[in-house]
């Protein structure tokens, strides 16, 4: 009643046991030519009346969630998905007029990995994902489900590909290795249209694609996500210190060690957590302090030493 065939190819160009921090970017679905399909929230993993169960996700969203889950087996420090999406939406990568605001995939895929990791997120590499095939075909006596994905992990510092995986597989129901008897020959192809078939196939494809990154000695601290910074700001809105001091605010992971710096000369000024996840710090100049156009960088560090930083580059600060 079922027949499967698959093609899998992976290359790894780094030590998978090294806990580098990666950001999984929003996945895209592509057509036969490799061009990005426009996100259509109506194109869900649809349900076929009577034989199919409902699943309110697009194929790209569903496959991304599978990849995120499989990455928990690797020695990679993965940025929380909600933080990645929020960083794009609040930094000019949202689709104009969409409600709720969704990420513009063309802008995301056009952005440089270094810019993503230094200006939007604090990471070492970015993982791109594409759904290259998501099809269910019905041929009266046979149905075929097909899933294909491409994954690419790119270093933010060097731009080199650290990991690449291309995977595709299919599952057929009906006349191929099928049962005898007319009624079964009709029913089995219809059963093959059920979402459960193609979603189960997708789980197998993703698991095999990510398998080269699997680590048997995953560090204990990776069971928690790295610190995140949702927002940060300072009160020198005109570029000069207000009332002879600089106040910095940060919203992020609670119970972290926070600090901020001005350029390379004034470093690691403490941030105090006034309420869960809300940090505040002040810089009071002393005699002899003088600087121009220094950017403010804020940081949160967890107990095991993982640090997330964010640079407020839009308003550099000057004093005297």
Give a summary of the structure in a few sentences.
By secondary structure, the protein is α+β, with helices and mostly antiparallel strands. It contains 6 helices and 14 strands.
Descriptive report:
The protein is α+β, with helices and mostly antiparallel strands and 320 residues long. It folds into 2 domains: 2-223, Rossmann fold (3-Layer(aba) Sandwich), CATH 3.40.50.10610; 229-319, Immunoglobulin-like. The chain is 19% helix and 38% strand. The chain contains 6 helices and 14 strands. The chain has helices at residues 59-70, 81-89, 105-110, 113-120, 182-191, 195-210; strands spanning 2-12, 21-24, 28-29, 77-78, 125-138, 142-155, 161-174, 229-234, 246-252, 257-262, 266-275, 278-283, 291-301, 307-319. Strands 1, 2, 3, 4, 5, 6 and 7 form a 7-stranded mixed beta sheet that branches. A 7-stranded antiparallel beta sheet has the order 8-9-12-11-10-13-14. Helix 1 (59-70) crosses helix 6. The model is unreliable at 47-52 and 177-193 (pLDDT under 50).
